[in-house]
Amino acid sequence: MASQRIGVLVMSYGTPESLDQVEAYYTHIRRGHPPTPEQLHELTARYEAIVGGFFPLRENTNKQVKGLENTLRQEHPDLEFVCYQGLKHAQPYVEDGVEQMVKDGITEAVGIVLAPHYSTMSVGGYVKRAKDKAEALGLKIDFVLDYYLHPKLVDALRTRVDKALEKFAGVNRNDVRVIFTAHSLPEKILEMKDPYPDQLLATSKVIAERVGLTNWQFGWQSAGQTAMPWLGPDILDVIRKINQEENVKNVLLCPIGFVSDHLEVLYDIDIEAQALAKELGLHLERTESLNTDPLYLETLSDVVYKKWKEVTSLS
Fold first, then answer.
1. Is 191 in the same domain as 74?
2. 147 known member of a binding site
3. Are residues 45 and 164 in the same domain?
4. Parent domain of 271
5. Which one, 7, 148, 191, 258, has least CB within 10 Å?
6. Are residues 50 and 176 in the same domain?
7. Where is mean pLDDT largest: 24-33, 56-65, 190-199, 224-233?
8. What is the mean pLDDT of residues 118-130?
């Protein structure tokens, strides 16, 4: 019999559930400012190109949240972990998840973001929203801030690189340029001494070491369309450059900054980057997304439980 109920707020970016929700979603991202007809058409067309009406990120996130709850309960049968979703730009919002926990009688909770690497502009933003709402409602909640070098996460990513390299039949694996990628953020994070770039490079290095890679680099992707400069170089520019200057013909993209199949993977890589590769005569592959890989769910379970133990031992 479970002796204690612990809430787990699982936070992620969010996505619309259908094409008719794209405008409201985009408006929320733009802080209440509706997109222009051109901007709305472009985003809607991207969703149509990858999904045809089915939105994989929402479904993948639902499965990840349920999978984490199941994993926590299997590994800690004496405790009753209950997972709640909190999304940044779609319902249920981060604040909705906190409110639902309180309504359900949860008195202590752990928050975690479905992103292994910390930035004040990404994970930090989720944490602030959840903390503010929790304080207003009297909920005790603590947060996992990152888990970018967790052994099980590294193992899951290493396995994916190894498997994807097999797709380059007849090519020496040292002749395949492996490029680790993550979502770009505004350059101003560098002035803030934000840990995001260093954490991503640390994950890349340990995977490269585990796989035995000598031919790898890092690139950014999916930068926002704003007046402020974003971290680069962009992956499309990287692909052009290594093809033109180094005559690279085989490229493996490993999007370590993303944990499930969604727009930045299914469109920005599988459609946009693939189209460029075809134009340049490149063989381009990417590693499979983590989605509900047991090793990833165990990573989340481990860090959530560890955070809860840390907090309870101090109280």
1. no
2. no
3. no
4. 151-286
5. 191
6. no
7. 190-199
8. 97
Pick the more confident residue, 313 or 126.
126
**CATH number where 139 lies:** 3.40.50.1400
Q: Does residue 296 sit in the same domain as residue 280? A: no
Q: Is 69 annotated as a binding residue?
A: no
**Based on the domain organization, do 182 and 259 belong to the same domain?**
yes
In three-state form (DSSP H/G/I as H, E/B as E, the rest C), the secondary structure along 81-140 is: EEEEEEECCCCCEHHHHHHHHHHCCCCEEEEEECCCCCCCCCHHHHHHHHHHHHHHHCCE
pLDDT recorded at residue 227: 85
Q: Do the strands 108-113 and 250-254 form a parallel or antiparallel pair, or are they unpaired?
A: unpaired
Domain count, the chain: 2
Q: What is the identity of the amino acid at 239?
A: I
Rounded Cα distance between 61 and 258, Å, is 12
Q: Is 89 annotated as a binding residue?
A: no
To which H or E segment does residue 145 belong? none
Instruction: Provide the 10 A C-beta neighbour count for residue 144.
Output: 22
Do 133 and 173 share a domain, yes or no?
Answer: no
The model scores a pTM over 0.85: yes
At 181-222, the pLDDT tens digits run 999 999 999 999 999 999 999 999 999 999 999 999 999 999
Does 126 carry a binding-site annotation? yes
Q: Are residues 213 and 129 in the same domain?
A: no
